[in-house]
């Protein structure tokens, strides 16, 4: 038989262990509540920001070149038209597209193709019945995102499922919020800031880390580039791929609500809240190396004193076929 004193000690030890275990479970439970509340708050804030940026096109959800609406939950290939809008000269009204990029994405294979369309590309603007051709960047000023989407669809002969416009403020805010981007500068050059003509940024050949204001200057410079608009397009795609790498970092995924709230006033899109959530899953694990960049080839054309970029007919057909096959891999 166990002595009474020993029994008391064993009971005390057992009680102490139970108390410690209860405290650990309680702390774990409280942590779980706080964590769940934090995640819920982040999701709520992200969705709230996405909702304020939503603007449906007049056509509705479906492109005229689609038989049915793309279902992102089924991971069907889709396209997004990314438009960088320069509207500071018009106080936010109208404006022109400083950059026009078509992104086609295959969620199952986690691959993407990026095509920059030179802003001086000579096209017929959708809805213009006169038959005259002008620069594609004029489409936004004439009919906003709707007209630009239709004009790009007519040029590439593929459906544009979604669009997103971002102005200069939104571009800079996004890059600053993710901690800047790393780029490989192709040659030495300088460029003025968009906020002050007296402020200038200097870019040296090689690797550089850029903040939002610097990245915008880097993406906009054209006159000093020996390749003109094509060189600028490549730098814009370079920044997009760098942003993709940055936003996929755990530290930036953790503050997705802050990022969404910061840029919501400067972005317009026809992506619904449920589609934004689907995109978050689609782009999880995406890297800049998963992106293939395409180039629309053509020649310089002057009509009077006005410069245009004239796409080569055969090269345009190749681009059309490549993008179509990417969007419809089973056909």
From TrEMBL:
Parts of the chain that traverse the membrane: none
GO biological process, one term: cell wall organization
Gene3D superfamilies given in the database record: LCP protein
Entry-linked InterPro entries: LytR/CpsA/Psr_CW_biosynth, LytR_CpsA_psr
Endoplasmic reticulum listed as a keyword: no
Residue intervals of the Cell envelope-related transcriptional attenuator domain: 96-247
Stated family: Belongs to the LytR/CpsA/Psr (LCP) family.
Protein name according to UniProt: Membrane-bound protein LytR
Organism ancestry: Bacteria, Bacillati, Bacillota, Bacilli, Bacillales
